[in-house]
Amino acid sequence: MSCLVKEIKYKNNIDRLKKDIAETCLKTGVNPDEIMLIAASKYANAEQIEQVSRFGIDDFGENRADELIDKFRIIGNKVHWHFIGHLQSRKAKLVVPIVDYIHSIDRLSTLEKVDSEAFKNNKIQNVLLEINISGEETKFGMKPEELALFLNEAVRFKNVKVKGLMTMAPFTGDVFAIRNVFRSLNELLKYANRNFKGINLKELSMGMSNDFKIALEEGATMLRIGSLIFL
Length: 231
What we know:
By secondary structure, the protein is of the alpha/beta class. The chain has helices at residues 3-28, 46-53, 65-75, 92-95, 108-120, 147-154, 175-195, 212-217, 227-230, and strands spanning 36-40, 59-62, 80-83, 101-105, 125-130, 160-166, 203-205, 222-225. The protein contains nine helices and eight strands.
């Protein structure tokens, strides 16, 4: 496929996606400009990311630290980087200098390491806490009932800012089950804001290519979209 044909395809994909986001936001009374659209670029190379970035996509999410580094070396800070995969503590030193957000904090040991690396880089690292709402053993994330203890401990870290929560819905055709996961995460965020002093969580990172409309209806502020953009 020629470079021009690819760019036309990406433009059409993005135009269609933004139209769907705007229409869903209209139903829920949300300003679509307040939704952060993150292109999940796990399977995209640097050239594809640069092509997509020409059509109004500024944020890209990577799942693996080594691949993030490789792509950053080519693209640099021309886009905003997010880390959306499971983060091993030993990889924090690679990720922290690059990314605007880490979406997948689920252990205090990881948060402590991120805080340490952020201090070394003279930055405040934005993070989201990953919650395994569905309870699936194959998914990462803390249990919902672990959030309270986590937040109580998180306030002692000075170089990280907990901005919100992240989750993944089960891959299923059961719309009710998907909606319940997203709704539960929203309720958990509201609970945290009501009950923890100094906590002001605003971001809900939830919704991918197959379920982003449901996520928007349940309060998502960040979408992680891959195949609808790149395929």
